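note to self — DONT lose this again. spent like an hour looking for the file last time. sequence + predicted structure for the chain T wanted, 660 res
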Amino acid sequence: MPARSVPARASSFLLFITYKRQTMHSQDEESSFSESQIHGAFHNHFTDSVQPLIELIDSLRLIGIDKDIDLPSIAVVGDQSSGKSSVLEALSGVGLPRGSGIVTRCPLELKLRKLRQGQWSGTISYRGHKETFYDPLMVDNLVRKAQNQLAGNTVGISDELITLEISSPNVCDLTLIDLPGITRVPVQDQPDDIGDQIKDLILKYIFKNETIILVVVPCNVDITTTEALRMAQHADPEGNRTLAILTKPDLIDQGAETDVLNIVLGKVVPLSKGYIIVRCRGQSDINNKIPLDKAIDKEIEFFTNHRYFSSLLNDDKASTKCLAKKLTKELVDHIKKSLPHLTEQINTKILGVREDLKIYDQGPPLEEEKMGPFLSKIIIEFSDQINELSRTGHSKNGNIHALLRPVFKKWDSHLRDTEVSFNAKVKEMIEKYNEMHRGRELLTFSDFAEFECVIKDHVAALQAPAMQTLKGVQEIVQNKFKEVCNLCFVQYPLLKNNVYKKIGEIQLKQEVKVEKRIKEFIDMEQLVFTQDKVFQKKLDESDIHQMTGLERYENLREDDMVLTSKGCALLDTRNLVPEKLALYYEIIYQRLTDYVPMLLILFMLKDAAKTLRHQMLEMRNGADVVELLKEDTDQGRRRADLKQRLERLTKAQELINTRR
């Protein structure tokens, strides 16, 4: 939503707040609401042009669209002892816990819901617990009890939400979120990072564009050092969602009035939404049992007679009455600007829900005689997807070759890296041949079997990494097959488990086959063989001829360009063994780097897919179709939930379209 996010029903509720304060009498009646008319001072703000917009948001909340999309809410942020509880009481009329230290220890979502008829009732919910009560005076104790359940009986905090819903014919729909007061120094048994915990919790809420940030700052502190205002500026740099409320003007030191006046006028820390100064009931007023309506009268009298602040009252910058009017204006502006974005969000979510329903909405037929053809249909669809995966590598979740390629690249890199160690072993052998490798051959002669042993040992060591490559490919292919299975049979746990079992068994059999062939190929590579023409080509592409001056001689090649015995004799020297064996390793490398991946693709992917498709088509014969198509109860619940969401979103879409 746009940044100027204001609670959907704030206007009508704020009108009522003033009305309620005018009609609340004695301490026994503080939490009861009379049935008198709305105060006329606010009636002009609830005009026919505004009411349709408010009713639209009311209707959206009524159908529960706030389960899918964040609707506007108010978060009240302030340092400890800033007067935050008094402001909440002034805005909501609900008496929340008061006291010193951290009183609000969990986020408290306060939902006010208007009834067409009926008596006042409250419902508090948290961590699966839900309790309904009918006495407003129970709010304080129930909230404290909930906080003790979630945050413990000490002074810790929790980010678990407490929801307090008040239903009454005399309230209008509004959502307020009371957040813990900001603290800097741990006290008693508080953890050392309690300040950081509280800040993180507050930022989680005020960073939402749908939230109006009400920053509460006492008049008797330096505003530039107020953490609450600093956090609001961080979350809302442009100040489009922030309204600062100055409290406790009666506690200002004499001579500091001008400084406070400059703050309210935006001359110290400018805010686009500005400041409003209020004088709510203090602890002494509560101790003296001054009711809300009397407190409002005292507030107006205070500002009217104040030497410095009386002008603020005239400029709508002082009193809770002005605060209500300010929120009403912000509400109207916000709803008008937010409707296009709200519509876009609803349309996007409708598309998403419909896509999800494509998976969940198609259930099996109810008639048993139709279940067989239905099972055949979904099995064929699965088989087609497996065939496409093996043929092209494509599936709904991407291309399998994109996952296999890094595994094959790792195998290739290992082969290339071992070339260095192979060449080093050969050179070391040549340098120490007489001391370590010479047998009964005469001096200056060499035994080819010794060189052959170096190749055999080196090739034999490649078997382990080849098996690791096999394991990696087997895991990728098996997971991909299971992904396709889950997409096709997500609703049918027994069918899905049966197919999972088949996939695992087939992959295990294929793995045994491939492991045998890799071992055979490694054994073949230890034979040390290649065709003369293949090795001759390697020699011709190397610089060995230049090293030996072979080109100076004539008639050294047969008709097929392979060196004659004389030509071979010129290259048959121990000094050239490292270079010649390095050329032969290139042949080994080329055969292994291609053969192993080709073997794995053929047996682990293509043949495995073919076997799986064949077994799936046989599954239909003699199967307990009813049992295989038995749905997971969670899937049924998920389908019902998606349908409810679609119904809510569609209804919301219709409401917006008819009201625009």
